[in-house]
Specification:
about 260 residues; alpha/beta; seven-stranded mixed beta sheet; 7 strands; globular
Length: about 260
């Protein structure tokens, strides 16, 4: 029987929990440092880690908040977060299975909403952002980190192609402009945007998602045959490694706008 998107995400990422816990790309980075720095000294806050994956945001933030709920579609990811949090003595961590587009929380249930490298998997991007705003208290702070699409249509086409070949749960990388417009529609007021580029090690990138060999070969073929503009922008290396754009979006829920389901 054909799976729907949420079922596919749960099935695919459930089997990858260990890889994402151990992934160096996910376990560290200036974006994680930025999130932690912003929340130091605010111990009473209620926080939500939306699309928690291996739990790296949760582990960083738990010592600085009163309570953090890690949400994901994959039960196995949540089990990893629960066990790892316990092993690190993080007693204020809760886990819950949910899609980003339909969160089982009351309005204004959280003071902080965080999401890192999750939104490009959401079936309905705008609905996920609206839910994030709905469960955030007015004036509450949100930080979203994700890979972003280049503005050049040619490069964007190649990037989206290799992303979905690598991982069938990929929906779309949005441009920074698309992110900002969607955040505004959802009821957020922007604070800042921080662009970064991260190097993607080709072999570990494919291993982490257990990309089938035919798909891996197709990605190699696409990158090898890509026009100079694409190879230059992505800084494609001899082994296929490349540079990926990311952006950290910091925003607050607008006080005058009350999102609804």
């Amino acid at each position: 029987m054909t799976q729907n998107h949420h079922e596919l995400v749960a099935a695919e990422y459930g089997g990858r929990a260990a890889e994402y816990l151990e992934s160096a790309v996910h376990a560290s980075g200036e974006d994680l440092d930025q999130i932690e720095t912003a929340l130091r000294g605010n111990g009473a806050l209620r926080a939500l880690d939306l699309g928690c994956g291996g739990g790296h945001v949760t582990y960083r933030i738990a010592p600085h908040v009163g309570r953090i709920v890690a949400v994901d579609l994959a039960d196995e990811m949540l089990a990893v977060v629960r066990e790892t949090s316990a092993s690190r003595g993080l007693r204020n961590v809760e886990v819950l299975r949910s899609a980003a587009e339909d969160l089982p929380f009351d309005e204004a249930a959280f003071d902080v909403v965080l999401s890192r490298f999750s939104a490009h998997h959401w079936l309905d991007f705008d609905a996920g952002l609206k839910e994030a705003a709905r469960v955030l208290a007015p004036g509450g702070r949100a930080t979203f980190v994700d890979s972003t699409a280049p503005h050049a249509a040619l490069v964007d086409t190649y990037l989206q192609s290799i992303e979905v070949l690598r991982d069938g749960t990929h929906v779309r990388n949005r441009t920074a402009a698309e992110w900002i417009a969607s955040l505004s529609r959802a009821g957020f007021d922007m604070i800042s945007t921080t662009p970064r580029r991260i190097r993607i090690d080709f072999d570990s990138w494919l291993r982490r998602t257990r990309t089938p060999a035919p798909h891996a070969q197709a990605i190699r073929s696409l990158l090898a045959a890509a026009p100079a503009e694409v190879r230059s922008y992505l800084a494609v290396e001899a082994d296929g490694s490349f540079m990926l754009d990311t952006m950290t979006f910091e925003a607050v829920r607008g006080v005058r706008r009350a999102p609804s389901r």
